[in-house]
């Protein structure tokens, strides 16, 4: 069974560290960020993968 995590505030310091930690542990990570954080993705930019890869384990969604 694959483990999945949902992290709110993924672009914040704690959310970004938690996402990286869980990805290293093999989790599928879904993150939520506010629209006002759309330009502030420096902490999670390295976690993004090629969207054409079928094995993606990191997903980030913006909420309004």
Topology:
Layout: E1 4-8, H1 13-24, E2 28-34, E3 58-63
Parallel strand pairs: 1-2, 2-3
Give keywords.
single chain, 64 residues, alpha/beta, three-stranded parallel beta sheet, 1 helix
Question: Can you characterise this structure?
Answer:
Residues 6-57 form the NAD(P)-binding domain. Pfam families: GDP_Man_Dehyd (PF16363). Its cofactor is NADP(+). Its EC number is 4.2.1.47. It is a single chain. The chain is α/β, with parallel strands linked by helices. It contains 1 helix and 3 strands. The protein has one helix spanning 13-24; strands at 4-8, 28-34, 58-63. A 3-stranded parallel sheet has the order 1-2-3, covered by helices on one side. The model has no long low-confidence stretch (mean pLDDT 79).
Concise synopsis of the structure shown:
The chain is an alpha/beta fold.
Domain unit count: 1
Order of helices and strands: EHEE
Radius of gyration over alpha carbons?
11 Å
Main pleated sheet: 3 strands, parallel
Helix content: 10-25%
């Amino acid at each position: 069974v694959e483990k999945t995590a949902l992290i709110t505030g993924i672009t914040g310091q704690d959310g970004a560290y938690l996402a990286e930690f869980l990805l290293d542990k093999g989790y599928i990570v879904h993150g939520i960020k506010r629209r006002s954080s759309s330009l502030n993705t420096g902490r999670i930019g390295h976690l993004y993968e090629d969207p054409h890869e079928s094995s993606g384990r990191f997903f980030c969604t913006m909420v309004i």
